[in-house]
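Quick note —
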Amino acid sequence: MNRSRTALVLFAVMMLALACAAQNQPRTPARSIKGHFASVNRQLLEMAKDFPADKYNFKLKPEMRSFGEVLVHVASGNVYAAKAGRGEKANWDELDAKNYRDKAAVVALMEKSINDATSALNALPDDAFGKSLEPWISVMEHSAEHYGLLVAYYRENGLVPPASRKSSGGAN
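Predicted structure written out below.
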């Protein structure tokens, strides 16, 4: 083997070893919370962007929230988490869904609430998660419950949720 090829093979082996070592690191509470928080919010934002705009007012039953109203409710949880994560006095105050009348407004709200909460989460030192996992666990659980509800909105409209489409590796 010539020198440049040997160097390339050695580099590839070193990169593979580094990747394997990174995968074998224990998952700390901080890494776990940050990863799960990002995952559930990524899926919800994908739904917010994907669901047809003309169906944002769809309700499974008249007494339930519409698709768009559920997303505003989820964003309320992210707003709460951002405030609590920054150490501000925080109550879970509902945002008024009437202020977010269409898909574009709801998507913008979701993006902002996710970015604000993620910034607050990432600003916390890792050792903070050894003391308490709140508000992050509660908000993630809440968001995941509503993710499941929004799947029903998709199915009732004859649509396949993004995470269940074959192109995303999910099952229909």
